[in-house]
Specification:
By secondary structure, this protein is an alpha+beta fold. It contains seven helices and 22 strands. Helices cover about 20% and strands about 30% of the residues. A hairpin with a 5-residue loop joins strand 5 and strand 6. About 5% of the residues have low confidence.
Length: about 400
């Protein structure tokens, strides 16, 4: 889950201790967290200072008998009044690496976690996931859009130059009115296709002020007037979670669950209306009221499942019965295609998602063998993936001796 918390724990001339009271916000946030139970929770607009980060951790996430959440390190290299943060269930994940990927206006944070699967850890077969969390420049002027483009370019350059691949999420308040903004295009159509991000609900086009996009709007939760909250009803799709190809297709151990992505509290009947009026039955009423009171944004939520990608010896049969290959591999990988001839590409990846080699795009005839020399690869575990227009993609792990 990703959520813009609207000046959490900090007062301004317009967001005061009266109209944006942090004690009341804690109650609202507790209701939302109890309902969603996120394993990974990222936020924007956390008021600066570690005390605010700890307040959510200890007073909301780990309140009462709960003790399963941890948080990332606090960063604020630009001395902004509002910052990002990652919280995670440490029973399921361990924080492996964190960095500031860019800091043009505010920090764009990068967090890498690994899944606490004991068998996988012992086998050196760990599932990693990296979340990039950004709060892009607001505004619709040419200058605002140029700043967002610079932010997106800096973040993607960090990902590319540091060879960050595999299970990636780009999460945050993008502050963009449409998918054709240059910043969004740079993230989703980056020249290096290995680091492109995808919209799980695949909704390109004009988001702002478009009733056809009502199901996906995340701001604003209120109509009328309010000194702190942006009002006018829901007509912006600012808050997004984008996912890498590895997550969308599930070949690096984590797989997006179809139709799980949604803006919490959004039922498609909110266009230029509030989250509470007309009556909203998309979640329990206390959750709807908490969303109304907590922020002028709705949180976005998506689900993933761990994939069971099995290592077997001496042969591996894909679920569709098309492929057989030697496993473990000493020198050469020999893959035989069985069944009907189909056009496909067969590739070998590292566990972090870097493509090492691939076959030509061709029809593999029944019984034909694709043989490739792997002597140049270090011993370890790699991922073999087959895909094509007429082939249901499958992935398998290969042990290289």
């Amino acid at each position: 889950m990703h959520y813009n918390l609207l000046y959490y724990g900090i007062n301004t001339s317009f967001c005061t201790s009266q109209n944006n009271n942090v004690n009341i916000k804690d109650q609202y946030l507790s209701t939302i967290i109890d309902y969603v139970q996120p394993d990974i929770f990222t936020v924007n607009e956390l008021g600066r200072g570690e005390a605010n980060a700890d307040r959510i951790l200890n007073g909301v996430l780990n309140a009462g008998d709960e003790s399963r959440y941890s948080r990332a390190a606090y960063t604020n290299t630009t001395n902004s009044t509002i910052v990002n943060m990652l919280y995670y269930d440490h029973n399921k994940f361990t924080l492996y690496f964190e960095a500031v990927a860019a800091n043009i206006l505010r920090d764009i944070n990068l967090y890498t976690l690994y899944y606490n699967d004991q068998e996988g850890l012992e086998a050196g077969d760990t599932i990693f996931i990296t979340a990039i969390v950004a709060h892009f420049k607001a505004g619709s002027t040419a200058s605002d859009q140029q700043t967002r483009t610079a932010e997106a370019q800096a973040a993607m350059a960090y990902i590319n130059s540091n060879n960050i691949r595999g299970n990636l999420l780009f999460m945050g308040d993008f502050n963009m009115n449409a998918s054709f903004e240059l910043a969004f295009q740079h993230i989703t159509y980056h020249p290096n296709e290995q680091i492109r991000f995808y919209d799980p609900v695949d909704q390109p086009g004009q988001w702002y002020n478009n009733p056809a996009m009502a199901m996906y709007h995340t701001q604003s939760t209120r109509t009328g007037s309010h000194a702190c909250f942006v009002t006018g009803g829901l007509d912006d799709r600012y808050d997004l979670i984008l996912a890498s190809h590895a997550i969308m297709e599930g070949y690096m151990g984590l797989h997006y669950i179809e139709e799980s992505y949604h803006a919490l509290g959004q039922d498609g009947n909110r266009y230029n209306q509030s989250v509470i009026d007309p009556p909203n039955n998309s979640a329990p009423q206390m959750v709807i009221e908490a969303l109304y009171g907590m922020s002028d944004h709705l949180p976005v939520v998506m689900k993933m499942q761990t994939s069971q990608i099995t290592v077997s010896t001496p042969e591996y049969f894909a679920a569709n019965g098309r492929f057989v290959f030697n496993n473990p591999v000493t020198d050469r990988l020999n893959l035989r295609v069985s069944g009907v001839s189909q056009p496909m590409i067969i590739s070998v990846y590292t566990l972090t998602g870097e493509k090492l080699l691939s076959s030509p795009a061709k029809h593999f005839l029944p019984g034909e063998i694709w043989s490739v020399d792997l002597t140049g690869l270090n011993p370890g575990i790699y991922i073999l993936r087959a895909e094509g227009p007429m082939v249901k993609p499958f992935s398998a792990k290969v042990i290289k001796h």
